[in-house]
């Protein structure tokens, strides 16, 4: 496992360097942006993350198999999620820039006052970005998602409205301009980040291990 951790450290350093380059690029003025450079950085970021994620999964499996390192799993998991959050937030911003010419914006990215829809309120709790709450959130929000009477922009407005302000979920969704074309992309990214089956399994295993360790101490 030590060899894997050394490899992960190098991959994390590489990922962070690329992520920082992208953040600097995204902070530049609009007329200074170069689409080819953005695409290259995007490809580099995805390659870095995929290699990092592969090594991380191997480390997680080893930590779970060894009871002596079970307590280490939770801290390791949280650290890995920070990199995943960073990746998905940047990925959303990049996709928004690469596709900015397709579709018209309802409002600028700096102005996110969502229009209140004249529909009856669904009893839906604000989503913070907790994967354990995703299935419950989506089972209710899907009633809005499946309404044929609503346009994609209407559904997008509702989706944004039910994100807890300043949460991981809100940052992910707000990285997409509210357009009809971006709505399915935002829904897909929300599911990839918070509703993946493998992520839920890891979280429930982590919680179970924490419970076992607590009981062992009593």
TrEMBL record:
Domain of life: Eukaryota
Entry-linked Pfam families: DUF1759
PANTHER family listed in its UniProt record: PROTEIN CBG08539 (PTHR22954:SF3), RETROVIRAL PROTEASE-RELATED (PTHR22954)
Protein name: Integrase catalytic domain-containing protein
Highest classification ranks of the organism: Eukaryota, Metazoa, Ecdysozoa, Arthropoda, Chelicerata
